[in-house]
Amino acid sequence: MKFGFVSFIGRPNVGKSTLFNALLGTKLAIVSPKPQTTRNRISGILTTKEGQVVFWDLPGIHKALGVMNKRMVSIALNAISNINLALWVIDAEKDARIDDFIMGHIKHKKPPLILVINKIDLIAKDKLFPMVDLYSKAYDFLEIVPVSATKEENIDDLRQSIFKHLSEGEAMFGEEDLTEVPERVLVSEMVREKIFQLTHQEIPYSTAVQVITFEEKPKLISIYAEIWVEKNTQKGIIIGKGGEMIRKIGTLARRDIEDLLGSKIYLELIVKVKENWREKPAVLDTLGIRA
Ligand code: GDP
Ligand code: MG
Asked: pLDDT digits over 18-34, tens only?
């Protein structure tokens, strides 16, 4: 049997979280069209007849400003070492040139690395060859695998390549285990995803979600969560006219949480202003965003 830890590295928005979900066959990680949606390490455990892989979805690597974003990038960079295999995900449409910052870290740490060219549904097939050529000359990749995470193209091939490059080892988790992330963190992530999908400009970036109570009753899980924003004006936008926005966030998040936890959910959301929370190390510690 094979076993290993596999992390996803790459620029923001290239589809790391979408690919993570596709490889697992479950929606665990949150996804949005906006960069920097993922703020923390999320584990996903895949167990097949070939063995077990623990995937680490990660924030994107970028030149970060601010305390929170700097922590996010450190979390991502740390995951280039101490793993058995890394997947460097690039965007077929946007990464025709190599990102020097990421390549610099890769060349320094030399992880066993598969290059995944994602979003091939967006390009003409003949654009792929010059890309493969360019990247393969820049680093000694174990393999280069073109995929489409959203169209689920070549995902089986990628899974096979991953197992092929892992060593023999005993599974660390049970067959039913899907993640090490606590349920309340998954819940807050689902709420945060809806905010990233439904709001604009600075709003999603100024928002955090914290589950305050999580009560399992016989036929229902009752959850009370706070949505933190940085300013009063942002609170108004999250609530929306007559509470329309917060109701929409709640309804969509509840559906995803019900699918994920396989239970009926009662979800109550309250918006609170926490000035400048993104710059406060202690608040970031509470949210689990620790480098
Ligand atoms: P991350 O920041 O790298 O984790 O990226 P996400 O997984 O959040 O995805 C960013 C955006 O790219 C989302 O709008 C996804 O739907 C989109 N996306 C991801 N994979 C693909 C793909 O294979 N094809 C296309 N067309 N879009 C994709
Ligand atoms: Mg992500």
From this structure: 999 999 999 999 999 99
